[in-house]
Design a protein that fits this description.
This protein is of the alpha/beta class. The protein has 2 domains: 14-260 and 459-477, Aldehyde Dehydrogenase, Chain A, domain 1, CATH 3.40.605; 264-443, Aldehyde Dehydrogenase, Chain A, domain 2 (3-Layer(aba) Sandwich). Helices cover 38% and strands 16% of the residues. It is built from 15 helices and 20 strands. The strands form 5 sheets. The protein has a 7-stranded mixed β-sheet, with helices on both faces. It has a 6-stranded mixed β-sheet with strand order 9-8-7-10-11-19, sandwiched between helices. Helix 4 runs parallel beside helix 5 (163-176) and helix 9 (273-285) crosses helix 10. The N and C termini lie far apart (61 Å). The mean pLDDT is 96. The chain binds NADP nicotinamide-adenine-dinucleotide phosphate and magnesium ion (MG). Magnesium ion is lined by residues 41-42, 109, 188-189.
Length: 486
Amino acid sequence: MSQTWEYAPAPESRDIARLRAGYQMFVDGKFVDGSGEPLKSINPATEEVLAEVSTASPSDVDIAVRAARRAYDRTWSKMPGAERAKYLYRIARMVQERARELAVLESLDNGKPIRESRDVDVPLVAAHFFHHAGWADKLPYAGYGPDPKPLGVAGQIIPWNFPLLMAAWKIAPALACGNTVVLKPAETTPLSALVLAEIIQQAELPPGVVNILPGAGDVGAELVNHPLVNKIAFTGSTDVGKLIQRSLAGTGKKLTLELGGKAANVVFDDAPLDQAVEGIVNGVFFNQGHVCCAGSRLLVQESIADELLGKLRSRVSTLRVGDPLDKNTDVGAINSREQLDRIVALSEAGDAEGAERWTSPCPLPDKGFFFAPTVFSNVSQAMRIAREEIFGPVLSVITFRTPDEAVSKANNTPYGLSAGVWTEKGSRILWMAQRMRAGVVWANTFNRFDPTAPFGGYQESGFGREGGRTGLEAYLATGDEGVGSR
Ligand code: NAP
Ligand code: MG
């Protein structure tokens, strides 16, 4: 006789986040009020206001960029790499010490499950600082010449899906290479970057080396266009990425763009199906599907499509959707009402174009922004749900018969950020990896991140790489400065 045990809620305490009523900008080593209109950051799982956050005006951007330039000229670019490394190690260790606080704060502000912020985001933040601390004194051995030079002031603009992790991806390599930073977090998730600023202050980084300016897109645009900024690193939508590329054309500023994706996760008939199901779930329901490299197109070999879909639906039915602070939660809240509306609209386009919708029967909370995990089958390549980035917990299933057909369908996208392949055959993995136009190809796994592995895209997914030895290039003067350089 089998017995089913019910889950009891196991909520993490929100007090651990040490939430304050107000947060200030971080400029030139100090927390100050900006002269922009303050913004309110909400908890997307409850719609309550978490805190009021001071924002930057154009004159604040100028003050921050000048502070970064001073810090660059006077201290940071002149400091031996071994000394810069000590600061990065210190930040990494302080992130570890405050890991629980950062994880709870991230889940509150972003809506992602505590299981993910605790076990994925925050450990990876520390790992990125550790990894780049290791590079700071070894740059002459990185393959960019015997004495590679930093660029100057890096303007960095990040999205809301991995707020603290994206800040770490941007700040750690910039500092390791000797650049100084002005970073703009996303409007809906500014809090964890401001706590990172506290850590940076406590680590006694020289004032101005890192500046953090909350605000909306106009603050980002101001930063992009500031004449004293030498490099822009942007992660976000393809539309804004194109806008930035246009406005930087001819300025000589170095640019890296990490944009959207519509990754194919390809499952062959010889794949271990139960393992593949876990990988498909992790590929598209991790972080509510708010992942630029999400495996949002499942390409499944026709002979196993029915069996795989059956297994997938029964597994997805067990995902628990709800309170991000509950340690049992698998899928948390959609980050904003705007994003929820977008997911709803694209799913309706799937219905209208004739795809077959299956929705997990999970209960949803009454308040907050939630969307039940959804799988569309009978999807054709022309449908919007097969072409556009949904950025939510929605999977589009397409079938194929031969490996050649799998490759041509996988590559039938304007994006090219990531891909997955599931098969027992090593030779087929290599064959597929050579042919799929994607910056990262995962084999028999998905959504694995590591600071040593370069990450980045082809085509409309952007250019430039972040992470590993290759990622250092984006922050060093390698003679190829100018927009669009790789
Ligand atoms: P977004 O508008 O591109 O936002 C990314 C960052 O750029 C945010 O900090 C944003 O500020 C800022 N920004 C907006 N307009 C700007 C401008 N003209 N100049 C400089 N910076 C600007 O992306 P989103 O609105 O958050 O999301 C929309 C779509 O982008 C998503 O549905 C998804 O398709 C894609 N996306 C991709 C990634 C990724 O990792 N590749 C991440 C997030 C979103 P605000 O926060 O004030 O808007
Ligand atoms: Mg928020």
